[in-house]
From TrEMBL, chain A:
InterPro entries, sorted: Tscrpt_reg_HTH_GntR, WH-like_DNA-bd_sf, WH_DNA-bd_sf
Alphabetic keyword roster: DNA-binding, Transcription, Transcription regulation
GO molecular function annotations of the record: DNA binding
Organism field: Peribacillus huizhouensis
One matching Pfam family: GntR
Gene3D superfamilies: Winged helix-like DNA-binding domain superfamily/Winged helix DNA-binding domain (1.10.10.10)
Identification of the protein by name: DNA-binding transcriptional regulator YhcF (GntR family)
UniProtKB/TrEMBL annotation, chain B:
A GO MF term: ATP binding
A Pfam entry, by short name: ABC_tran
Coiled coil start-end: none
Official protein name in the record: ABC-2 type transport system ATP-binding protein
Provenance organism: Peribacillus huizhouensis
Keyword Lyase: no
From TrEMBL, chain C:
Bilayer-spanning residue ranges: 20-38, 75-97, 118-142, 187-206, 218-237, 249-272
Keywords: Membrane, Transmembrane, Transmembrane helix
UniProt keyword annotation of Transmembrane helix present: yes
Stated name of the protein: ABC transporter permease
Entry annotated with the keyword Transmembrane helix: yes
Length: 127, 229, 278
């Protein structure tokens, strides 16, 4: 795991976001075990208290479930998992919209550019 | 909890600490920051009873420092605290002889973690390895609090990494840690609480996550505000 | 108590190499000295006898024979004793300063031990005392051996008198002081000696606590202790008081000695527990 955190957002929120990304892109799957709080703290070089707080937040949001004395797992609730994907996509598109709207570009042109860029990036990744 | 109340310390006429108050909790990493000069080390020494204070009080779980509290708080100064001719093994034996709470298993675990050989002499240790051995001596007493004076200054990057790793591991679990430093890089995400000292007074005391959440400021942002204005 | 004993053991181990070296120097110097001196005395005697054409009897009549005291006054014998005394006096300072000076600061460790800090003070004092007693015992053990060796090297006729240990001790001023033949004298010498060690330790702690100012305090403390201890002498030189019996004078010195020692320990305890700096 390699994450760079920014210094201005609460670290626990960044951790939650990181997990959401991993869920959205399929790296973390429904029901998959996740590291303990301490392992996570060690991996991400963050304070164990912060890791704890992030897990608590994820539990509250229903992203993970913890049974006593067992490692926490990603939820198997499809609705929540789907929601995460949706949420991230919508958020990304929102911020994209925010920066693109002032340019007053037509929707066709925009879609065209997006399509081109997206396939370029993907082919790069394949290489 | 370590409570420092109105701590005042003079060197000659100069007040190095002028009514410093703060608390450090168990299970939290508290960072004493001061960009220039003395004060930080003196505070730690005062907590450990290694320098007399002029005014104020220091309580460790409600007790003033005494022989029993030395089993509760370990101080890791920016210096070698073992005899240079000792081997690491002998140094650990010395600790075991005197500390009831010495935990040899943990000491061995740390030694393996740091990849150090117990046959090495203290005098042969690099600055980074000295810091590690100092940390080992403190953690293996099974203390509740650890005070570290500039643990990262002047040591190599890998030693830094290893020491940082200890902070995120079970070895620190539930203990209270106070670190002094003048630079915050690398450990910004590691610390719970920051106390900004300058000219012998506490300029600001805050919780790092709270600061990020409520004001969207990094530790360095706050330092910039406070020190530079 | 347990930590005190461990500390004493620790302090002894830290000095043991130098200490054993001192013992070996003493042993070698004194035994080689016995051989060298006995041989040279005999050579001299024969030389004189040859030159002046004297018979053994005539030589002994004119010049007298030899005794162990002839050897005990040479540098071979006195030198290593003086060396040991100087080394231990120096170590009285070093036993403290070695923990503060140099690349390592062992004082941190010692002061943070979970034991009353006065144990450090007592352990260091005890170590010094044990070193002194060890040296004395060592000297007392090798002395009769040296004596036997000396007597076996001197031709029977030339041996003026065979000396036993107590007469050897009395024959030599230096030995008389470091190993008084009477036990009461022994206690007095070493009682005063230990009092001085405590006074010195406390003044060292003054320096370690108040640094520059502490040097002044420390020196003043030593002067005050010495003056106080010697004060009966000044008073006794005044005629009105010269009527005191020697037992009374002894009692006065005893009380003063105990007082100064106790004061040194009390002040030392305060300094090491509350004031000392690392």
């Amino acid at each position: 795991m390699n994450v760079t955190f920014n210094n201005r957002d609460p670290v626990y929120i960044q951790v939650v976001r990181y997990f959401k990304e991993q869920i959205a892109n399929g790296n973390l799957m429904a029901g998959q075990e996740i590291p303990s709080r301490r392992e996570l703290a060690a991996m991400l070089k963050i304070n164990p208290n912060t890791a704890q707080k992030a897990y608590k937040e994820m539990e509250e949001q229903g992203l993970i479930t913890t049974e006593r004395n067992y490692p926490s797992k990603i939820t198997t609730n499809e609705n929540i998992l789907h929601g995460v994907r949706e949420e991230l996509i919508v958020a990304a598109v929102d911020s994209f919209m925010q920066s693109i709207r002032p340019l007053n570009i037509s929707i066709d042109e925009l879609l065209h550019i997006v399509q081109e860029k997206y396939s370029q990036e993907s082919s790069k990744e394949v290489l | 909890m370590i409570e420092v109340n109105q701590l005042t310390k003079k060197f000659g006429r100069k007040k190095v600490l002028d009514g410093v108050s703060f608390t450090a909790n168990k299970g939290e990493i508290t960072c004493l920051i001061g960009i220039n000069g003395v004060g930080k080390t003196t505070t730690l020494k005062a907590i450990m009873g290694l320098t007399p204070i002029n005014k104020g009080s220091i309580l460790i779980d409600g007790e003033t420092i005494n022989k029993n509290t030395y089993e509760k708080v370990a101080f890791i100064p920016d210096a070698i605290t073992m005899l240079p001719q000792m081997t690491i093994k002998q140094a650990m034996q010395f600790m075991q002889d005197f500390y009831k709470k010495w935990n040899q298993e943990r000491a061995t675990e740390l030694l393996t973690f740091f990849k150090l050989d117990e046959k090495t002499r203290i005098s042969e240790l690099s600055k980074g390895n000295t810091a590690k051995i100092n940390l080992l001596m403190g953690l293996a007493i099974d203390v509740d609090y650890i005070l570290m004076d500039e643990p990262f200054s002047g040591i190599d990057i890998f030693s830094r990494e290893q020491i940082t790793e200890v902070f995120t591991s079970h070895l620190i679990e539930d203990r209270g840690v106070i670190i002094t430093t003048h630079e915050i890089n690398d450990i910004e995400h590691l610390i719970d609480k920051v106390i900004l000292l300058d000219n012998g007074i506490v300029l600001k005391e805050f919780n790092t996550e709270q600061m990020r959440q409520e004001e969207g400021k990094s530790v360095v942002d706050v330092m910039r505000e406070v020190y530079i204005g | 108590m347990k930590s005190y004993i461990k500390l004493v053991n620790f302090e002894i181990n830290r000095f043991i190499k130098i200490y054993l070296t001192l013992l070996i120097i003493t042993l070698l110097s004194q035994f080689i000295g016995v051989i060298v001196i006995a041989k040279s005395k005999m050579d001299q005697a024969h030389e004189v006898m040859g030159e002046q054409n004297l018979s053994e009897q005539a030589y002994l009549h004119d010049y007298g024979g030899f005794t162990f005291a002839h050897f005990a006054s040479t540098l071979w014998f006195v030198g290593p004793i003086a060396l040991c005394i100087i080394a231990l006096l120096f170590y009285c300072l070093m036993i403290w300063y070695r923990d503060w000076f140099g690349k390592n600061t062992f004082a941190y460790r010692l002061l943070m031990l979970p034991t009353a800090r006065i144990s450090l003070y007592f352990s260091k004092a005890s170590a010094i005392l044990l070193f002194i007693i060890g040296l004395l015992a060592f000297q007392l053990i090798i002395l009769p051996l040296e004596n036997t060796l000396f007597e076996s090297l001197i031709q029977d006729n030339f041996l003026q008198t065979s000396m036993d240990v107590s007469s050897i001790l009395q024959s030599n001023v230096m030995l008389g002081i470091i190993l008084p033949p009477y036990f009461s004298d022994f206690l007095i010498s070493y009682g005063i000696g230990m009092m001085f060690v405590f006074v010195l330790f406390t003044s060292i702690l003054f320096e370690r606590s108040f640094r520059l100012k502490g040097i002044v305090f420390g020196i003043l403390y030593i002067i005050a202790a010495v003056l106080l201890y010697l004060s009966p002498l000044f008073i006794l030189s005044n005629e009105t008081y010269s009527v005191l019996y020697s037992e009374e004078i002894f009692a006065i010195f005893l009380v003063l000695g105990i007082l100064i020692t106790a004061a040194s320990i009390v002040i030392g305890n305060w300094l090491i527990s509350k004031r000392v700096l690392v």
